[in-house]
Amino acid sequence: MKKIKKLDQTIEICCGMGGTRAGLSKAGFNIVQSIDIDENAVRFHKDYWNDADLIDITKYNKNQIKSGTILSAGFPCQPFSSSGYRSGFLHDQGNVFSSIIQLIKENEYELTFLENVIGLISNSKGNTFKVILNELSKIYKHVEWVTTNLLDIGIPQNRDRVIIIAHSYKDPLIDDYSKKFYHVEQSNLFDEKINIDSEHELPEQMPLFGTVSSGKWSKLIGFRKEVKYPYSLHNFIFEEENEEFKVLSGRFWARTGKTIFYTSENTYSHNIGASLGNAPTFAISPKILNDDIKSKILKKSNWTSIHSDMFVFRLKPEESLKFFGDITLQFYEAIRDFKAPLAAKYKLIGNMFAPNHAYDVLIHIQNKRKLNQI
Fold this sequence. Notes:
With 374 residues, this protein is of the alpha+beta class. The protein folds into two domains: 8-227 and 353-372, Rossmann fold (3-Layer(aba) Sandwich); 233-267 and 275-350, no CATH class. Helix content is 28%, strand content 27%. It has twelve helices and 15 strands. It has helices spanning 19-26, 39-49, 82-86, 96-107, 119-122, 127-137, 233-238, 291-300, 317-320, 332-337, 342-350, 355-372; strands at 8-13, 29-36, 53-54, 70-73, 111-117, 142-149, 160-167, 182-193, 209-213, 216-224, 248-255, 258-263, 281-284, 301-307, 310-315. Helix 1 runs parallel beside helix 12 (355-372). The chain is globular and about 60 Å long. The termini are close together.
């Protein structure tokens, strides 16, 4: 294995507006190419980063992809099953993961960094994730994964992501990273090979973190550490230490032909999703509403309404960036001034892998690689 270069040459597919790129850059990775199929994502990426390529990665030509040592991808989760796998899903040009495997084989990336929603682990009763581990394990010595939440790193949004690291270095890179978020109770190394045809019965739920080394997988059993965000949503949104009113997290829900707005006892259950309907929406009691409070809200909001006996307000796209960490605020003016429909802006943000989330694990990887000089 080659020694680490000062600036790794990174190829990023499914780049979106650049959340992962912001984390990669801060952690010392050098991005040489960013690729996406979404026109708005590519347009924003070009405006902000000065480069991006509109390429359908399921139909790419070899000469379209620049040379690099690292591959990063926030690939979409497609629901393929073990039966679909046996019928040859890796040859299905509509599957992004198929193209990722093909890219790795063609370019022999030193390290592959993948992220996805936590549902990837349970998709198709665990078969999807097993297929992913299987395919990556055919190429790399180590395939590691960990599921973490934005709350885990001090950001008040309940947003889980699974991070997968594949490489052939001497030792695992993030096997100890999970201890930052979990109390590890037990670690067992099973003899089972990660093979889709294995007769070994799958666990009811794939573990939230673990390592595949030389085809054998380590199942770590642990419990997530309790996370208590030290500030209120009021303080976070309005940057005020003295609260004049309590901000509640909530969302709209259509049920029995009627749309209601409900708030949750889980303070951070708000959803900053990939559509206008899932835009970051909060509420306060209308009983406390006065001109001063309304003025403060209108500075942060682009829509308000009295709904379901609550005063509901939606944060502007640029204001909602804060819920992805302080690194994300570098996009504040760019997303505010970006010429696109409001729904498109929320989609860009909702699809983004939070830069602080990416950086948290990437800086750990960089430091460990440099220490080991692998």
